[in-house]
Design a protein that fits this description.
The strands form three sheets. The chain has a six-stranded parallel sheet, with helices on both faces. Strands 7-8-9 form a three-stranded antiparallel sheet, with helices on one face. It has a two-stranded antiparallel sheet with strand order 10-11. By secondary structure, it is an alpha/beta fold. Strand 10 and strand 11 form a beta hairpin. 31% of the residues are buried. The model has no long low-confidence stretch (mean pLDDT 96). The chain starts with 14 loop residues before the first strand and ends in a 25-residue tail after the last strand. The protein has two domains: 202 residues, Crotonobetainyl-coa:carnitine coa-transferase, domain 1 (Rossmann fold), CATH 3.40.50.10540; 73 residues, no CATH class. Keywords: Transferase. This is CoA transferase. It comes from Paraburkholderia pallida. GO terms for molecular function: transferase activity.
Length: 368
């Protein structure tokens, strides 16, 4: 059998018990699984992790190569079997609301008495403490309360729903990083710890710098320096969109060189500097919107990609996987057995990172 663990990895003999469900916890442990850890997924009997039914494709991506054990943690037998797993584990990841683990009789203090070097990572919406700790929530709630929409970025700014679960992925990435540091520290000292990962906190870790600077523009968001009229998405004649990422002034000058002859309004000297464009945001953004609406996306890309410009087509799902750069980087690999794909770890290691086990565990498959 091909080697599925990086032998250089400090995680190759780490065991993580994962009792979390849905996205944040399973994604965090899937990252550590890709880096060499062994992950035992503990699921409730019957339906198991709700993601099995909600999205089999997502479940596969988050849980490939893990071992599945079905345990009813509300029963004495299930709890005892769980504690036996914990006895030899390096870490535990759970995603219940605060207080649930204590009610089940398997809180951190109880488990640390069994295994003092255990690292327990609790991922919850608002953390283990604070006035929102027990509040219900999902990704949109954490983004709303974490300041995601408090930062003005477009001339015609709108509150729109993100296309993926940004808050969940923010939390899972921070959890994986914290787990790695805590596990290595516990192995060195013999002393574990409890990690309190708040999804809301993790969103704020990303939004705070920009949100803090945006406070003085709440009543007049267009004046925010973060609103740049030439750094935006623009609709093309065929209803598609292109992304124009102009920040440095040299790119504006390149845009003028590329299409200024056809659209002389771009040559207006009031717009020649970034400061000038900031003073005339609405006019510049309206001009660009009108220009890009005159031609279809493919024609714009063919024209603009001949110049040094940060311009990109907004790809649909078919185009994404056919993109030559995506294929060259090998981020996604097809799994012929079930006609699906797996996403590789998004960092290239010079010592190599082998593809993991492609098996998507059946509920309770590894109980023995």
């Amino acid at each position: 059998m091909a080697q599925t663990k990086p032998q250089w990895s400090c995680l190759k003999d780490v065991t993580i018990v994962d009792v979390s469900q849905l996205l944040p916890g399973p994604h965090a442990t899937s990252l550590l699984k890709q880096l060499g850890a062994d992950v035992v997924k503990v699921e409730p009997p019957g339906a198991g992790d709700p993601t099995r039914a909600l999205s089999p494709v997502l479940f596969a991506q988050l849980n490939r190569g893990k071992r599945s054990v079905a345990l009813d943690l509300k029963t004495p037998d299930g709890k005892q079997a769980f504690i036996e797993l914990i006895r030899e584990a390096d870490a535990l990841v759970e995603g219940f609301r605060p207080g649930v683990m204590a009610r089940l009789g398997i809180d951190y203090a109880t488990l640390a008495a069994v295994n003092p070097r255990l690292v327990m990572c609790s991922i919850s919406g608002f953390g283990q403490t604070g006035p929102y700790a027990h509040a219900a929530g999902h990704d949109l709630n954490y983004l709303a309360l974490g300041g995601f929409w408090s930062v003005p970025v477009q001339v015609n700014d709108r509150v729109t729903r993100p296309r993926i679960r940004i808050a969940d992925y923010a939390a899972s990435s921070h959890a994986a990083l914290a787990l790695t540091a805590a596990i290595l520290s516990a192995r060195a000292s013999g002393r574990g710890q409890h990690l309190d990962v708040s999804i809301h906190d993790c969103v704020m870790a990303w939004t705070t710098p920009a949100a803090w600077a945006s406070r003085e523009y709440v009543d007049h968001p267009l004046d925010s320096p973060g609103v740049m009229p030439e750094n935006d998405l623009f609709e093309t004649r065929d209803g598609r969109h292109l992304a124009l990422g102009i920040l440095e002034n040299k790119f504006w000058l390149n845009l003028r060189e590329a299409i200024g002859a056809d659209f002389p309004a771009l040559m207006d000297e009031r717009f020649a500097t970034r400061a000038g464009r900031q003073r005339h945001k609405l006019e510049v953004n309206t001009l660009l919107a009108r220009i890009f609406a005159t031609r279809p996306l493919a024609q714009w890309i063919a024209t603009l990609q001949r110049f040094d410009l940060p311009v990109s087509p907004v790809l649909d799902a078919h185009e994404l996987f056919a993109d030559p750069h995506v294929q060259a980087r090998g981020m996604v690999r097809e799994i012929a057995a079930n006609q699906t794909v797996a996403c590789r770890f998004p960092v290239k290691f010079s010592l190599g990172l082998p593809d993991g086990d492609d098996n998507v565990p059946m509920l309770g498959e590894h109980e023995r």
